[in-house]
Amino acid sequence: MAPPLLNLDGIRLTFGGTPLLDGAELTASAGDKIALVGRNGSGKSTLLKIAAGLIEPQDGEVFRQPSATVRYLPQIPDMDGFANVRAYVEAGLGPADDPYRATYLMEHLGLSGEERPDDLSGGEARRAALARAMAPEPDILLLDEPTNHLDLQVIEWLEEELSRTSSALVVISHDRRFLERVSRATVWLDRGQTRRLDKGFGHFEEWRDQVLEEEEREQHKLGRQIVREEHWLRYGVTARRKRNMRRLGELQTMRQRFRGHRGAEGTATMVASDATESGKLVIEAKNIEKSFGDLTVVKGFSTRIQRGDRVGLVGPNGAGKTTLLKMLTGELQPDAGTVRLGTNLEIATLDQKREAVDPHETLAHYLTDGRGENLVINGEQRHVVSYMKDFLFKPEQARTPIRELSGGERARLLLARVLARPANLLVLDEPTNDLDMETLELLQELVAGFAGTVILVSHDRDFLDRTVTSVIAPDGAGRWIEYAGGYSDMLAQRGGTRLDDRKARTKPENVNAAAATDRAEVAQPKGSAKKLSFKQKFALESLPKKIEAVTASISRLENNIADPAYYERDPASFQKTIAALDRERATLAALEEEWLELEMLREEMEG
Length: 607
What we know:
By secondary structure, the protein is α/β, with parallel strands linked by helices. It folds into four domains: 4-204, P-loop containing nucleotide triphosphate hydrolases (Rossmann fold), CATH 3.40.50; 207-260; 281-493, P-loop containing nucleotide triphosphate hydrolases (Rossmann fold); 511-606, Helix Hairpins. Helices cover 42% and strands 20% of the residues. The chain has 20 helices and 20 strands. It has helices at 44-52, 85-90, 99-108, 122-134, 152-164, 176-182, 204-235, 241-260, 321-328, 363-368, 384-390, 407-420, 437-449, 461-467, 487-493, 502-506, 513-523, 534-561, 566-569, 571-606; strands spanning 4-13, 21-29, 33-37, 59-64, 70-73, 140-144, 168-172, 185-190, 193-197, 281-292, 295-306, 310-313, 336-341, 347-350, 374-377, 380-383, 425-429, 453-457, 470-476, 479-484. A six-stranded mixed sheet has the order 5-6-7-3-8-9, sandwiched between helices. Strands 14-17-18-12-19-20 form a six-stranded mixed sheet. The model is unreliable at 239-243 and 502-529 (pLDDT under 50).
């Protein structure tokens, strides 16, 4: 095994009360891709800062290879003193680093380099910080929530970039799909201590549940052992005093272990307040359009959203998702076309403008709007402290100013406020930002089981796949198309192409001439055709076997790269396997698209 570039051992840190870190460990060697996971407030960001040398632990050992370069992505970058983004990014380069690497990263992250720090949005500042951290291709790369404020296309590009890098990677993220594709090992920070699984995040949840079940069994056995020892002390046959004192000491030790055991963290309870049922038709939009100057954001879009629908809006930042959302909900009038809202609508909205919250306001005052100590949830009056507990806040936090909350706690607070309002239409703009995995699971269950209607904007592919019934995505020049199913279903219907690949896919120079002719023949058959041609029929019969073979090949390649030791054993072979996997996936997408077009043609002819 390669010697570690980074090793944290027995790390302890407390800010008063229960220790935040109590013997935590973290080891990273060359080529490691580690997902660092845990609840909000468990100390993940603090452990990453200790690894980066920004915080000193109260106890424990921190080792970094003296020659190793370390780069850290903070949640809130500090850009003071830099004239523009390029100066900020290039300041992270070493003397021997290639300055073109900084330009390459800025271009892919949507930055020109000429932007002034004071003019950047929070998302743009974060992308600049990501470019700065990645530019020198460091030996150790520490990333804290790198996907926050990134759109889907940039996230997918980042996945590929991090999969190719030779840097030892430790990453914190709430994006499941991102962690599944990037990580090859998982470190779980729980109740101040760490456990390591030498498999990627895709295997984490099953392993975590097994660990917690085993821990519960051990605690139950300890409790029964204490009962037996207490019975022996009271009623057992008296033996020599020395032996009794020994057993009494052992009993006291067991009692301390039992009482000192910190159980698994509590689970948030999310229930949306019910409102009266809306009409069957919730929103009907007909040929709506919106432009800002010469920029057409929405052109000729129509949709019909009914009660019970869960609609997801996706697309690059700046594509117009929020504009379309505001038009659909009546907050913004279209330049052309009409939007009709249904009857009895009660709308609860979660937007991204978290900075609009007064940071000096207390949690209790914010949740109740300053109207006493109680809220009405589903017709039942509840004390604000009791309601806060449902979202994992402690009673003493009721008088805490919002400015003292972490990003995850603030996200939970905003959800608590939105869900306290009676609603039959939930409008959620990036609801998953800063939520931990467990809270995200509960939000998924709430959205999927909500009796009313949901419209949400999200860059979280896994969340979209688990919740929505349709996806609205941009198709260029202001056109938007609605697809049935989740994000993965949308990609399948687009032939496996990503949102930013659509234009490139339609360029003549990017399409094989023969294949283009075949597709034209399939898509536009002659009016006199009564059945499939021999060539089309043969393709329809043979394609499933080809798809099955390519799927099996993909599965074999994925199993190969899942081996955590593969990269260390043969880096060159690992990169070839990654490239082969990309080719096979592209082939599968093309085969599935061809089969779908032929199958639709067959049904049309037989219909």
